[in-house]
UniProtKB/TrEMBL annotation:
Organism: Paramecium sonneborni
Residues annotated as domain PAS: 356-407
Transmembrane segments: 29-46, 727-752, 926-950, 1032-1052, 1271-1293
Signal peptide (from-to): 1-19
PROSITE patterns per UniProt: PAS (PS50112)
Protein name: PAS domain-containing protein
InterPro entries referenced in this protein's UniProt entry, alphabetically: PAS, Tiny_macrocysts_regulators, TPR_TmcB/C
Entries under Pfam families matching the protein: TPR_TmcB
Length: 1335
């Protein structure tokens, strides 16, 4: 239930987040999705639990999917951790055990075996782990091991197994090894993080736990890791030495390649760092590593030329070696795995304790084969009882099981005397030392090592059973008791038959007792050996022996199983009994049974070795002779070591550390420095950035410089100073300036581009507001004209219809006033600068407004519009009877909106269009300037960067040139030193290096010192290092990429602004069309009302006729501009234009709320349905036709109205007088064409051009937003590129260049101090470094 509850909570949280961001945006009904998801989530969780039941019932032996095994093991561990508080889990575990018992096919199944637990089990038992829990954990181990063998590349399975090794088995090293192997399987990023984290944790814990004292013991895995590290350590030292040889060899050439020398020097530094890191790692594992320390010291002295530190390590290694020599008797077995047994000098074997191979021999060395007389294959996988006398073999398994139960390490670690059974059947007394080893499969291996006895008296050994019958004898019984193995195997021989006076109770556990062998007994007399060893049988009747009897007890059963008897001949009896010939015969066989094994130490000129018994085999184990640790006989080796140390005479250099000082030039100086100052005055001066004039340095600086050359540690700190070189500092500042420049230009160009685009968008809004204001002004004029005509009675309406019509006109007038006021307010509040003309119209009184009949005043356009709004509000509330043609308020509006104000409205719209074009052109120029500034800045910075990179390369080159001043003999000497070291290392010599040089070396050094004082011929060098060229190319490419951003930025902006410029004329025509067509219609109606009132400051009739003609020009301009922009125009607006002008626009008009579809499609004989292009043409023809009729009526009262009207209108005497012309003209307003034009203009043309203008502005803004999105994407990519270049390319590159210079400087440490002191150029360079550090 808890899982279902958690799943429901998660589902609810996800749906809440989903609804918060997406509800009512792109999705509706989140609550329904939540309800639908509840049963699905519940079912999914229930099925998951059911699937886990299936996992427990799964037959593990037939499973193939490793993912199922991962789920199974995780679930079993979950059950183990929670079954104590959940009875259901406990039942499930019991079921798991029963299922596994029935399906397991292995004989050693963990739930079937009844043998005792091994060491690891016992350790876990101490932690209150129940038998069942441990068995389940063992089952997990079997599952992991079985499936890992089949699915070795499954990362998740192996990670779980590594956690199993770490958490349950507590095997940190094995777990670490498993993590190391998983790394080679290309794990995913999350698994890589897990592996890295746990590896670090395990290594830290192991370093803390295993940093033991000198006499402490390491576990097996740690020792194996140390041995592996030791091999790697030696390989890395060998590799570093070979690189040194390659460096000195390159320097010996006639034309050294500085580039190759620098490359080799780089590799040398890396190799030295690897050696140091591995050395530090080995020190963390253990501090007891004299062999590795001695090797490292020799490497430092011979190769790295650091004599002081090397000798310090040598002294420390000597101290550790002496301590180890004192402690080495405490432990003899040095193996830690089955593979190491071949390196053991003493006879050694390994015994398994696992249930399937209990007490079987799993490995042994050849030394044991020589001892026992067996072939190696004869003993492998055989029980250890084969090598044990039968009386011991009966209860040996019980002893082994008792040890596994008790885990008493101290009991088996003590050396004891045992009797081993040879292949011939004889027994041999040996000292046995045992050690418990932990194997990787969780089982214990018993390592047993045998050491033969050193006997100085003639004797033999017998083993008696509880009835005192002889069961086993040693081979020496043949010559002492005259019996062999065949005799005791054919019949039972009791001990008292040989020794009649034997009484066990008298001799038991006593020493020094004497017993006599009866030579007259039947057994002795019937022996074939008696005649070979006894010359005078008549005189000899007995032989005296010292006897020692020990009981053989079975501690498990607490009973005596038999007895061990040791017999030694009484002193002086040997020479009396045996004749000289027999003695000679006895010596020869004995000499053939020993072998002198030795090891030669070249450095000391000594052989160390001892005689070793071969047993019954003549084979010699080479591992015994050449084993690395040369563990032969501890006592003998220690004694000879002490003798060698006593004989060794060390040559003491009493002059070491003594310096001769002299007061010279008011300073205390080393006399060698004074001599060098004279000898160096004749050397050739080299031009270098490091050669500075030192004449003005003070005494302190000079003394400090001299101390640098006398102390290797001080020289090392001076050379490896972490201070950044100045050229790197300059380069860093240049790069920082470059990055700041790029960031500044990119951010400025991007955000300035956003601002410029915003200005263009606001300008487009201004065009829309200005067009809206023009249309609303013409709408106000039309409403006032309609009210005036209603007062005159032109409209043929009933009284109620007239009231309704008046109400509609006043409402339309009110709406137009409101929209005019809103548009004028938006224009007034906008502070965007377009051009001077717009500013003049909005801020200066340039518009001549007629206040009354003969009264004019000047206003700006905003004020003039406010005046019109105020007058329109008055007219809106004025009674209809007061709206005469002479009304000042109505006349104010009609006159000004037909003359001065309308002129400026049209001028304002045109200026807005021109201003946007100018803004677009200026914006293009701005981005062009950005591009030029960026290109100029990048070019200048590129030149600076190239100069600095060349200087860095010159610095490295000049440092490498210092090596050219080293004499060839010195170079050859250093090469030979490295070569000798690598030769000794490969041979495997272990001698300790003395801190003093031999006489031969001292002579060579003196010879080198004399050659250093002579003049040296400068070598011609070459430099194939092309890294600086690569760096210059990379920087150039990056700067071109940076410049590419500004080019792309300029290109995107240029394309967008050019498109806007090209479309602005069409936008201007579209914005003017609606108001212009209304102006033409209003002008015609105003002509009908008052021909005397001017229109557009001209004759009303002429202007109206001209405007009618201009209708066609405006419409033609609109279509021409649209055709020009068809390729660059937004597809949405292009489709909208086609829908309005060429297709049926009724659906669009209905969507905008202007009319109904039915009315639209039937109006004007369906002309609207055919597209506004047809409708507008019909509108033009109607207006032109009405003016044609007007021409027939005006000034011709005699015209027959009916004939002229042709049925399109009906005459009404509107004026109620005989003025036919006026009546004819007033009746023109009721013509069908006039009504149709009025409706078409008021509904369809107004709707069409308002919709087109809105869509046009909207699509232009959409194009701008699209460009902004593209610029944003490019800007983000560019900023990421800047981040990548600076943090991923430059910062690591700066560190690399700094390290390259430091590593190149560090190559100087390869030169010995005595050579540095003799070369002026190197000294001057180091002095320059000291001087730079002081600054």
């Amino acid at each position: 239930m808890s899982s279902i509850y958690a799943a429901l909570m998660l589902w609810s949280a996800l749906l809440m987040c989903f609804s918060y961001y997406l509800e009512d945006t792109i999705f509706h009904g989140t609550i329904y999705a939540w309800f639908v998801g509840i049963p699905l989530i519940t079912f999914a969780v229930y099925k998951k639990e059911k699937y886990q039941y299936d996992l427990l019932l799964m037959n593990i032996n037939k499973a193939e999917d490793p993912n199922q095994i991962v789920l199974l093991t995780n679930y079993i561990q979950k059950l183990l951790s929670r079954y104590q508080t959940n009875q259901h889990f406990q039942i499930m575990l019991d079921a798991l055990i029963e299922v596994h018992k029935n399906t397991c096919q292995k004989e050693d199944c963990v739930f079937r075996i009844k043998k005792q637990l091994n060491q690891r089990m016992k350790k876990l038992k101490d932690e209150n782990i129940s038998q069942r829990d441990y068995q389940i954990q063992q089952l997990l181990g079997e599952i992991y091991q079985g499936f890992i063998r089949r699915h070795q590349n499954n990362v998740k399975l192996r990670i779980n197994y590594a956690f199993y090794l770490l958490d349950f088995l507590k095997q940190k090293q094995q777990s670490l090894n498993e993590f190391n192997q998983i790394e080679f399987l290309s794990p995913s990023l999350d698994n890589e993080f897990i592996i890295f984290r746990y590896k670090k944790i395990i290594e830290e814990e192991m370093n803390i736990m295993q940093n033991e004292s000198i006499n402490g013991n390491q576990d097996i895995a740690s020792e194996l890791a140390f041995q592996n590290n030791m091999r790697q350590f030696q390989n890395k030292i060998e590799r570093a030495t070979l690189m040194h040889m390659d460096f000195w060899s390159q320097l010996q050439e006639d034309s050294p390649d500085l580039g190759k020398m620098n490359e080799i020097g780089y590799k040398i530094n890396l190799a030295i760092l690897q050696v140091e890191d591995l050395w530090n790692k080995m020190q963390k594992l253990t501090q007891n590593l004299p062999k590795a320390m001695r090797l490292y010291a020799k490497f430092i002295i011979e190769v790295l030329q650091d004599k002081d530190f090397g000798e310090e390590l040598l002294e420390k290694s000597k101290m550790l070696q002496n301590q180890n020599n004192k402690m080495k008797n405490k432990q003899t077995i040095q193996i830690f795995s089955s593979d190491d047994i071949n390196f053991e000098p003493l006879p050694t074997l390994l015994v398994q304790t696992s249930s399937d191979k209990f007490a079987q021999i799993c490995n042994l060395n050849l030394s044991l084969c020589n001892l026992l007389g067996y072939q190696k294959t004869e003993l492998l996988n055989r029980k250890i009882n084969l090598l044990i006398p039968q009386i011991y073999a009966k209860f040996h398994d019980n002893y082994l099981e008792m040890f596994l139960q008790s885990n008493d390490q101290q009991k088996i670690s003590k050396e004891r005397l045992i009797y081993v059974k040879l292949k011939s059947g004889y027994i041999m007394p040996c000292y046995l030392y045992m050690k418990a080893l932990q194997s990787y499969d969780e089982n214990i291996l018993i390592a047993a090592q045998f050491r033969t006895l050193r006997t100085f008296k003639t004797g033999c050994y017998l083993i008696l059973d509880s009835d005192e019958a002889i069961e086993c004898i040693s081979s020496s019984c043949i010559c002492n008791l005259f019996i062999d193995q065949k005799m005791i195997s054919h019949r039972k021989i009791y001990f008292h038959e040989l020794f009649p006076n034997y009484n066990r109770n008298e001799y038991l556990n006593k020493s020094g007792c004497v017993i006599s062998l009866n030579l007259l007994s039947n057994i002795v007399q019937n022996s074939n050996y008696l005649q070979y060893y006894i010359s005078d049988l008549e005189d000899q009747t007995q032989i005296l022996f010292q006897i020692q009897i020990t009981e053989i007890q079975n501690e498990h059963l607490d009973q005596v199983m038999g007895y061990v008897i040791k017999l030694e001949k009484v002193a002086n009896e040997y020479s009396q009994i045996l004749s000289p010939d027999v003695q000679q015969q006895l010596v020869i066989p004995n000499s053939s049974l020993s072998n002198f094994q030795f090891k030669y130490f070249p450095a000391k000129g000594l052989y160390l070795g001892e005689n070793q018994d071969e047993g019954n085999s003549a084979r010699v184990d080479q591992t015994v002779i050449w084993e690395q640790s040369s563990r032969l006989s501890e006592e003998t080796q220690a004694e000879k070591k002490e003798k060698v140390e006593e004989v060794k005479v060390e040559k003491i250099n009493y002059a070491e550390g003594i310096r001769t000082l002299k007061l010279f030039d008011n300073r205390i100086q080393d006399i060698e420095d004074i001599r060098m100052s004279f000898t160096e005055s004749d050397e050739v001066q080299h031009s270098s950035v490091f050669q500075k004039n030192q004449d003005n340095q003070d005494d302190f600086e000079q003394g400090r410089t001299n101390n640098v050359f006398r102390n290797r540690k001080t020289l090392n700190s001076t050379i490896n100073d972490q201070q950044r070189p100045k050229v790197i500092v300059y380069l860093s500042w240049t790069i920082n300036i470059l990055m700041l420049t790029v960031l500044t230009l990119s951010f400025t160009s991007y955000f300035l581009g956003l601002q410029l685009f915003e200005n263009v968008q606001n300008s487009l809004n201004l065009i829309k507001y200005a067009s809206q204001r023009n249309q609303e002004c013409t709408q106000i004029v039309m409403n006032i004209q309609n009210l005036e005509m209603l007062r005159i009675g032109i409209w043929n309406l009933t009284e109620s219809e007239a009231l309704q019509y008046e109400e509609e006109q006043r409402m339309e007038l009110n709406n137009s006033i409101f929209e005019l006021k809103d548009a004028n307010k938006k224009i007034m509040l906008n502070d965007l600068y377009i051009n001077e003309q717009i500013e003049e119209l909005h801020s200066k009184s340039v518009i001549n407004v007629r206040i009354s009949q003969n009264n004019f005043a000047y206003y700006d356009l905003i004020e003039a519009t406010q005046q019109i709004i105020s007058k329109a509000l008055i007219v809106k509330d004025k009674p209809l009877n007061n709206l005469t043609l002479d009304d000042e308020d109505a006349t104010f509006i009609t006159y000004n909106l037909h003359n001065g104000v309308i002129f400026q409205y049209r001028n304002e719209t045109s200026q807005y269009s021109l201003g946007i074009q100018d803004i677009s052109e200026n914006n293009i120029n701005i981005f062009f300037i950005f591009m030029i500034v960026a290109a100029s800045s990048f070019f200048i910075l590129l030149l600076i960067l190239i100069i600095l990179i060349i200087q860095i390369n010159q610095i490295q080159e000049q440092i490498l040139q210092l090596f050219m001043d080293i004499p060839e003999k010195t170079v050859k000497y250093l090469y030979n030193k490295s070569e000798n070291f690598i030769s000794n290392l490969q041979v495997g010599e272990e001698e300790e290096v003395s801190s003093d040089f031999s006489e031969e070396e001292q002579d060579e050094i003196k010879e080198l010192s004399r050659t250093l004082k002579s003049k040296r011929k400068k070598k011609i060098f070459k430099n194939t290092n092309q890294s600086h060229r690569t760096q210059i190319l990379v920087i150039t490419f990056i700067l071109f990429a940076f410049q590419g951003y500004f080019l792309l930025n300029y290109f995107l902006n240029q394309v967008t602004y050019n498109n806007i410029k090209q479309q602005i004329p069409e936008l201007n025509v579209t914005a003017r069309c609606g108001s212009y067509y209304r102006l033409v219609d209003n002008g015609e109606r105003q002509l009908f009302l008052n021909r005397e009132e001017p229109i557009l400051l001209g004759d009303a009739y002429s202007v109206v006729m001209n405007n009618i003609q201009l209708n066609y020009d405006v419409d033609s301009d609109l279509h021409q501009e649209h055709a020009k922009n068809s390729e660059i125009m937004n597809s949405d607006y292009y489709n909208t234009f086609q829908q309005i002008f060429m297709l049926n626009p009724c659906e669009k008009f209905f969507e905008q709320g202007f009319t109904t579809v039915e009315y639209c499609e039937t109006f004007a004989n369906g002309s609207i349905q055919q597209g506004m292009a047809v409708a507008i043409a019909r509108f033009f023809e109607n207006v032109r036709y009405i003016m044609t009729i007007y021409d027939m009526f005006y000034g011709h009262p005699e015209v027959n109205f009916s004939v002229a009207a042709r049925g399109w209108g009906r005459f009404r005497n509107i004026t109620q007088n005989s003025d036919n012309v006026t009546n004819y003209i007033y009746n023109l307003n009721n013509f069908k064409q006039t009504k149709e034009s009025r409706v078409m203009q008021n509904v369809f043309i107004k709707a069409a051009f308002r919709y087109l203008l809105d869509e046009f502005v909207k699509t232009l803004k959409s194009d701008i937003e699209m460009t902004q999105t593209q610029l944003l994407a490019v800007f983000i990519v560019f900023e990421v590129l800047i981040f990548f270049v600076y943090f991923i390319v430059w910062l690591p590159g700066e560190i690399k260049m700094t390290r390259d210079i430091q590593r190149t400087k560090g190559l100087i440490l390869m030169i010995p101090l005595r050579v540095i002191q003799k070369i002026k150029t190197i000294k001057e360079f180091i002095s320059f470094l000291v001087h730079s550090q002081d600054k």
